[in-house]
Design a protein that fits this description.
The complex is a heterodimer. By secondary structure, chain A is of the alpha+beta class. Chain A contains 5 helices and 5 strands, in the order βαααααββββ. Classes of the chains: A alpha+beta, B alpha+beta.
């Protein structure tokens, strides 16, 4: 059954995430990207950001709960077992550092059908709580096989 | 170090996906979808086993651009299409090509292939800040 297009534009309440150094290290280790900027305080201090930064793709961690809101939305009732990630787009606007508290708002950006599959696009905007500055934006496209 | 790439320049990175990579990535990212951590479940839904989280493969693509550019935050935009699943014990090779340099932005196309030659990520591009 096709996903109802009436959910396009639906917004979810913001989720809050506080970035910490140990989680950055865990993420960087899991993906095997051992850039000293993510895990070596001494080297990072001499680098362009004068300290540890999160990998730009750390957005997958701090924006994750927004996805759960959309994918497990009882009204939309997506068939999660048949769902795979189709496309992903990120815009990295500003540097994320340990101690940043990030608010991410999610919304349903698009719903469409193509070759007997359903496509659901979740949009996300992440801002630093302290100054409201945008850190990143995401477009997460999921494909649901029928 | 200033980044001043030329159109046509290419760069590459190879990543080995060990058997437990999807489990490590699940722990780090919170993506515990059973298709990633349960081989039986993956087979049942027609994926041939448990598959690596697409966003982990995207992280390989990100690292490829980031290592090449010398600073991860020079990467301003990254878009990928997940063409085929990556399975544990695959080897993924990412190749980037600079297609355009305009002002302070270099545009690169990217492709990730596994050892079979199958494209696992395609229609991918990055925008990278240059000249600083």
């Amino acid at each position: 059954m096709a996903v109802d297009k009436k959910f396009i534009g639906k917004k979810y309440p913001p989720v809050e995430y506080e970035v910490c150094r140990e989680k950055i290290k865990e993420y960087a280790t899991a993906v095997g990207d051992l850039n000293p900027l993510y895990m070596d305080e001494q080297k990072a201090k001499q680098g362009p950001y004068k300290g540890i930064v999160a990998p730009p793709l750390f957005v997958v961690v701090y924006a994750k709960d927004v996805l759960s809101q959309a994918l497990f939305d009882h009204e939309m009732a997506l068939n999660i077992a048949m769902l795979v990630h189709g496309e992903q787009e990120y815009e990295f606007v500003d540097v994320v550092r340990p101690g940043d508290v990030i608010l991410t708002e999610g919304y349903i950006a698009d719903i469409y059908e193509k070759s007997d599959k359903d496509f659901v696009v979740v949009g996300s905007t992440s801002k630093r709580k302290s100054d409201g500055k945008v850190l990143s934006r995401g477009k997460w496209t999921f494909v649901i096989r029928r | 170090m200033t980044l001043n790439p030329k159109t046509g320049e290419t760069f590459t990175l190879q990543k080995e996906v060990d058997k437990y990579r999807p489990i490590f990535y699940a722990g780090a990212s919170g993506d515990f979808n059973p298709i990633h951590i349960d081989a039986e479940f993956g087979k049942m839904v027609g994926l041939g086993g448990n598959i690596l989280q697409g966003l982990c493969t995207m992280a390989f693509v990100m690292q490829t651009v980031s290592d090449w550019s010398g600073d991860p935050y020079r990467v301003k935009k990254l878009k990928v299409r997940f063409a085929k699943p990556v399975l544990p014990e695959d080897t993924v090779t990412v190749t980037g090509t600079v297609t355009e340099v305009q002002g302070r932005t270099a545009r690169c196309t990217l492709v990730a292939k596994k050892q079979t030659g199958d494209e696992v990520i395609n229609n991918a591009f990055a925008e990278v800040e240059v000249g600083r």
